[in-house]
Amino acid sequence: MLRAGLPRSFETGLAAYLTVRDIAGELLRLGRNVVVDAVNGIEWAHALWRTLAAETGARLFVVQLTCSDRDEHRRRVETREAPTPPLPLPTWAEGSEREYLPWTDPVLTVDPVEPPEACLARILAYLPEPTGRRDRAPGTLP
Q: How would you class 13 by CB atoms within 10 Å of its CB: exposed for 0-12, middle for 13-18, buried for 19 or more?
């Protein structure tokens, strides 16, 4: 939406979440598995995914990354590269001041200060074993 020239605002953020929800819903209804990577910092967003899972009969697994080292978190935010084509990245102030409400659902919290291999192992242990459905390539996550 920002690439289309729409201004960064509450409305464009809301529209982005609703667009992702609609695409995820279509894929779930086709029997596909979906991973949504988003901040989901407020209860409205939590409810969005709960409702979608209930409507489609999907199981919801929440994995949140919470960096325990504030200085490292800030370094990562301030040194990340902009996507191509460049879009404005949130600043440290914008991210650290953003409202965030904890999930009330079961959630796996992973600390990205840990080695990536350890984080991946924890995530894979949290998710159910693949069922061997035809719509998924061998070795992909459920």
A: middle
